[in-house]
Design goal:
It comes from Limosa lapponica baueri. By secondary structure, the protein is mainly β. The protein is 8% helix and 32% strand. The longest helix is centred in the middle third of the chain and has 5 residues.
Amino acid sequence: MLLKVKRRTKKKKKQLDGDEQIQPEVQFEMEILGTVTTVYKFQGMSDFQYLAMHSGPDGKQTSMYDKVLMLKPEKEEFFNGELPLYIPPPIFSRLDTPVDYFYRPDIQHRLVPFLIM
């Protein structure tokens, strides 16, 4: 199921022993939008995956996953059949897992005057 969940927070002021404290009141609203018929699972991060999709004349997106992925040896008709144009990205990411880069701040150099004795 596809759910739409809204979280609303209202801040209420309460007086306790002369001190004013803000205490949030949280409410959740849930709405069922529909059912999901196709689920994709990735072994790596989904940001680095690429799904082959085709836009029809009515604007509907259809998956080309079953037409592109070869799970068994195919006959010649498979390769000669009609298929929408599928152009993969020119380059994929070299990394498939999250990496910490440990960025360092820029080094600020300053001139120190020399003392000559």
